[in-house]
Amino acid sequence: MIRRLTAQDHDVCFELLKTKSAENLFIIGDIEAYGYEQDFQKLWGEFDEHGELIAVLLKYEQNYIPFALGAFDAEGFANIMCDDPNFNMMSGLQEITGKIEPYVTKQLKRKRPTYYAKCTKLQGGQGVDLSHVQQATPDDAEQLVELLKAVPDIITVERKRRGLADGTSRTFFIREDGKMVSSASTAAENSVSAMIVGVATHENYKKKGYATACMLKLCGQLLEEGKELCLFYDNPAAGAIYKRIGFEDIGIWMMYTYE
């Protein structure tokens, strides 16, 4: 049986989602930020014959994200999505979205896979000097955006400043020759997980281990807080730095766009 979830279902919903905290970063973060009763955000749950919650479907604006640990009613989730006139995106782990995809009746416009990795324990950081790695404050937002201009991410100074101020994002960076030359950040932080983004080094300061140092400092702090870490990357070569410090592939994250 599939039904809408409400705040009364919160405990059982989080019990399921927290079995895979990193994989459910977006769903957990959106629930903590906006709850269950917003016009732009809704949640559905599938319950088995024993009344146990076995799958969750989040709607955030036009995007839907499903999660299940095992078999679930993929056609039922697809029907919910297709009944929404505003639906035009689906994202999630390939093993889950792939079961829903055949039942989606809207015309597919684009399907993009990315590698998805997570980290629960650091490795390989012995002997790395972290003394020159600093944590950013909202006052550093402008310099951070300047450094990240070459990184394919839609970001503004105001957005970066807001994230650093409200705790949904944090950044560690290295400054050399009077300017910020390397950084690593989080996005979509919630109580149990965080996404690593914005790992970048200025072209003139590469091959000095700066990005690794920033990552070690950032990830070490998050792991000490008991959070699982996750990130996306586009190709195996780009993922090399992450795997050296303890990230492991957990699947393919799919992003579908529909007409």
Written overview of the protein:
This protein is α+β, with helices and mostly antiparallel strands and 259 residues long. The chain contains 8 helices and 12 strands. A 12-stranded mixed sheet has the order 1-2-3-4-5-12-6-11-10-9-8-7, with helices on both faces. Helix 3 (74-82) crosses helix 4 (94-100) and helix 5 (141-147) crosses helix 6.
Task: Sketch the major β-sheet.
Answer: 12 strands, mixed
- Mean pLDDT figure: 91
Coarse shape:
elongated
Distance from first to last alpha carbon:
29 Å
Computed structural class: alpha+beta
Topology order in helix (H) and strand (E) letters: EHHEEEHEHEEHHEEEHEHE
Q: What are the low-pLDDT stretches, counting only 5+ consecutive residues below 50? A: none
How do the strands line up in the largest sheet? 1-2-3-4-5-12-6-11-10-9-8-7
As a whole number of angstroms, the C-alpha radius of gyration is: 19 Å
Number of helical segments?
8
Helix content: 25-40%
Number of strands: 12
Task: Tell me the fraction of residues in β-strands, as a range.
Answer: 25-35%
